[in-house]
Amino acid sequence: MRAALNRLRRAEDGATIVEFALITPPFLVMMMGLFDLAFNMYANQMLNGAIQKAARDSTIEAASGAEAAIDANVSKAVKAISANALVQFERQSYSDFSNVNRGEDFNDLDSSGLCDNGEPYEDLNGNNKWDADVGAGGFGGARDAVLYTVTVTYRRAFPIFAMMPGQGENFTLRSNTVLRNQPYGGNSSAVVPTTGNCT
Questions:
Q1: By CB count within 10 A, which of 37, 58, 80, 184 is most buried?
Q2: How many CB atoms lie within 10 A of CB 73?
Q3: Binning pLDDT at 50, 70 and 90, where does residue 185 land?
Q4: CA dihedral 108, 113, 115, 120 (to 10 degrees)
Q5: Beta bridge partners of 88
Q6: CB burial readout 26-45, b (16+ within 10 A) else e
């Protein structure tokens, strides 16, 4: 009996198969994770390049009638990578770069952090109400700063989501850029600020 146990202890037949079986699953998960990361980085770079070109095309005077064509070019670039991607577009125009993603100033008399209870505010966009973002939708006018945002949602190229907790089946990229329209005329969206009271 003792001799049989010694022979079993020294036997290495099948050890490679066992080692391979132990190493392969984590190795495959790691490789799929790396491929997934690389694919998402590549998709992000392609998206950034596409929206930079689209934003530049949007700054010229004739762009206001070509919104669908400009967006279609971005969609085409994205769908070359992921054919079933959902692509969403948003444009916000501002009279100046300093106004991008900025709310209208108000005097927070009750320290609530909200514009309410009749507190005075500066109406920068002339719509007679306080806004958390002073931008207006669309291309804006000459010399306006335009924030162009593209959100892309696509199914992951590798099924890493099935093996790692917290990973969804879909991946979402969001990219934006801000450019100023060419000076093809007067600044059409400039509004003389007035004051109002929050409700």
A1: 58
A2: 15
A3: low
A4: 10
A5: 151
A6: eeeeeebeeebeebbeebee
Number of residues that make up the chain: 199
Asked if 58 and 146 touch (Cβ cutoff 8 Å), the reply is yes
pLDDT tens, position by position, 44-98: 999 989 988 888 887 776 666 678 888 888 999 888 988 899 999 998 888 888 8
Structure tokens at 156: 């992951």
The answer, yes or no, to whether residue 21 has pLDDT greater than 70, is: yes
For the chain, counts of helices (H) and of strands (E): 3, 6
Strands in the chain per DSSP E: 86-94, 120-123, 136-137, 145-155, 170-180, 194-197
The CA distance from 48 to 59, in Å, is 17
Q: Which residue has the tokens 């066992």?
A: 18
Mark out the alpha helices in the chain (DSSP H runs): 2-10, 15-58, 67-79
* Strand, helix or coil for residue 81: coil
Place of tokens 């969609």: 75
Question: What is the DSSP secondary-structure string of 55-66?
Answer: HHHHTSGGGGG-
- For residue 143, the model assigns a pLDDT of 83
Collapsed DSSP state (helix, strand, coil) of residue 90: strand
